[in-house]
């Protein structure tokens, strides 16, 4: 019941991910319809119910353009799970503030990169130019497209791809 369900707006724009329990609640309340049933059936007292994988809201809802929250997981994903100093695909990654926080560096997309523990340690609390190191790419805010935002679910929900394409 906790499996993720992709929620589409009435115009098919992907807007949200909820769990199966919530999705079935929306369908029963006739606020959403089943678009794809990829998870078999669930038996309730009254009836057998397809377990949704994708649902679509009956009424269009307007919402602000989604923005990606700055989380460790999303920084690692943006940086391809690669240390941005040495380029190694490290199993263990840390977050490095390019301009250290104690020197006024902010916790924003353009000031954080994935770094392996060794590089993080080597850079220490220094500024980039003082450390003699450089980042492989200039850190930027990732795209705020629905495709990018929800594509982190694609590994486990390949069937969502067709609904994310183009958004
Ligand atoms: Zn490194």
Highlighted features:
two-stranded antiparallel ribbon, alpha+beta, binds zinc ion, 6 helices
Structure explained in plain terms:
There is one protein chain. Helices cover 22% and strands 20% of the residues. It contains 6 helices and 8 strands. The two termini are 27 Å apart. It binds zinc ion. The site of zinc ion has 8 residues, from helix 3.
Helices, strands, pairings?
Blueprint: E1 4-8, E2 14-19, H1 20-28, E3 32-36, E4 41-43, E5 48-50, E6 54-57, H2 72-78, E7 94-97, E8 112-115, H3 117-123, H4 128-131, H5 146-150, H6 161-164
Parallel strand pairs: 1-6
Antiparallel strand pairs: 1-2, 3-6, 4-5, 7-8
This protein binds zinc ion (ZN).
What is the arithmetic mean of pLDDT? 92
User: Helical content, roughly?
Assistant: 10-25%
Strand content: 15-25%
Task: Give the CA-based shape.
Answer: elongated
The SSE string, one letter per element, is EEHEEEEHEEHHHH
Please, how many helices? Answer: 6
Largest sheet: 4 strands, mixed
Widest sheet, order of strands? 2-1-6-3
Find the structural class using helix and strand composition. alpha+beta
Regions with pLDDT < 50 over 5+ consecutive residues?
none
Overall radius of gyration: 21 Å
Cofactors, ions and other ligands in the entry:
zinc ion
SS elements, strand count? 8
- The first-to-last residue Cα distance is 27 Å
